[in-house]
């Protein structure tokens, strides 16, 4: 989870999030190079004196600074497309979790695992234990097996919500009347926190998501 003064991305807990971080760093590197170059050129412009009477056109430089940005954009667009299709791939999930957004809590259904159904409410600050995380902990966590491909179906009962777990690289809108699908693979045990990220009403900030990732044999006994 994110803690104090962490302005970057959280440590990944899934292969897809790892790829997203690689792409973020790649795009940021290109962004920094362009910013430095343009910043340098703009700075040097202050010291320019217009003394060349014969400078009317420069076909070569125009060609270069038209084609070069297009090539640079390709270096961002192609890895971006690769990632887009990677995120959309469904790799034979071993179980399905359904999460339904409500104002303002999530409810979950394990339709192919003992037909478990429950609601997951945020723990209010006055009921929080000393080791709990304020505005982030819930009364009923989502328990999921690690090292297995999980499909998640997201929908909503009233308004649009968004089921978002930064460490897993998952962000899916829950829309009334629709069923959205994504999948992920958790590669380590632990607690992964998330929040609704679609402005869904007065208590939008108070419908967090907690995933408890456990080894598969623990999960089967649950
Ligand atoms: Cu649900 Cu914001």
TrEMBL record:
Role description: Component of the cytochrome c oxidase, the last enzyme in the mitochondrial electron transport chain which drives oxidative phosphorylation. The respiratory chain contains 3 multisubunit complexes succinate dehydrogenase (complex II, CII), ubiquinol-cytochrome c oxidoreductase (cytochrome b-c1 complex, complex III, CIII) and cytochrome c oxidase (complex IV, CIV), that cooperate to transfer electrons derived from NADH and succinate to molecular oxygen, creating an electrochemical gradient over the inner membrane that drives transmembrane transport and the ATP synthase.
GO molecular function terms attached to this record: copper ion binding; cytochrome-c oxidase activity; oxidoreductase activity
The protein's name in its UniProt record: Cytochrome c oxidase subunit 2
Quaternary assembly: Component of the cytochrome c oxidase (complex IV, CIV), a multisubunit enzyme composed of a catalytic core of 3 subunits and several supernumerary subunits. The complex exists as a monomer or a dimer and forms supercomplexes (SCs) in the inner mitochondrial membrane with ubiquinol-cytochrome c oxidoreductase (cytochrome b-c1 complex, complex III, CIII).
Gene3D superfamilies reported for this sequence: 1.10.287.90, Cupredoxins - blue copper proteins
Record membrane topology: Multi-pass membrane protein
InterPro entries, per the entry: CcO_II, CcO_II-like_C, CcO_II_C, Copper_CuA, Cupredoxin, Cyt_c_oxidase_su2, Cyt_c_oxidase_su2_TM_dom, Cyt_c_oxidase_su2_TM_sf
Highest taxon of source: Eukaryota
Domain Cytochrome oxidase subunit II transmembrane region profile: 1-91
Cofactor field: Cu cation
Catalytic activity, reaction form: 4 Fe(II)-[cytochrome c] + O2 + 8 H(+)(in) = 4 Fe(III)-[cytochrome c] + 2 H2O + 4 H(+)(out)
Note on how the cofactor is bound: Binds a copper A center.
Keywords for this protein: Copper, Electron transport, Magnesium, Membrane, Metal-binding, Mitochondrion, Mitochondrion inner membrane, Respiratory chain, Translocase, Transmembrane, Transmembrane helix, Transport
Cytochrome oxidase subunit II copper A binding domain: residues covered: 92-222
Membrane-spanning segments: 27-51, 63-85
Record-level GO cellular component terms: mitochondrial inner membrane
GO BP term (any one): ATP synthesis coupled electron transport
Subcellular location: Mitochondrion inner membrane
PROSITE patterns found in the cross-reference section: COX2, COX2_CUA, COX2_TM
Family the UniProt entry places it in: Belongs to the cytochrome c oxidase subunit 2 family.
């Amino acid at each position: 989870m994110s803690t104090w003064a962490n302005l970057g991305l959280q440590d990944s807990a899934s292969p897809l999030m790892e790829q997203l971080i690689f792409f973020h760093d790649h795009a940021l590197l290109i962004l920094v190079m362009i910013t430095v170059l343009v910043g340098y050129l703009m700075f040097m412009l202050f010291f320019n004196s217009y003394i060349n009477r014969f400078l009317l056109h420069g076909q070569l430089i125009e060609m270069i600074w038209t084609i070069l940005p297009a090539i640079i954009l390709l270096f961002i667009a192609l890895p971006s497309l690769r990632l887009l299709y990677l995120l959309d791939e469904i790799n034979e999930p071993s179980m399905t979790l359904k999460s339904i957004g409500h104002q303002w809590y999530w409810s979950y259904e394990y339709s192919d695992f003992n037909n478990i159904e429950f609601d997951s409410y945020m723990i209010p600050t006055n009921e929080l234990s000393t080791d709990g995380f304020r505005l982030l902990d819930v009364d009923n966590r989502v328990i999921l097996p690690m090292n297995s491909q999980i499909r998640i179906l997201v929908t909503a009962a009233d308004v649009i919500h968004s089921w978002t777990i930064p460490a897993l690289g998952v962000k899916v809108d829950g829309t009334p009347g629709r069923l959205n699908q994504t999948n992920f693979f958790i590669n380590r045990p632990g607690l992964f926190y998330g929040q609704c990220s679609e402005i869904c009403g007065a208590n939008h900030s108070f419908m967090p998501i907690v995933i408890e990732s456990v080894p598969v044999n623990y999960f089967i006994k649950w």
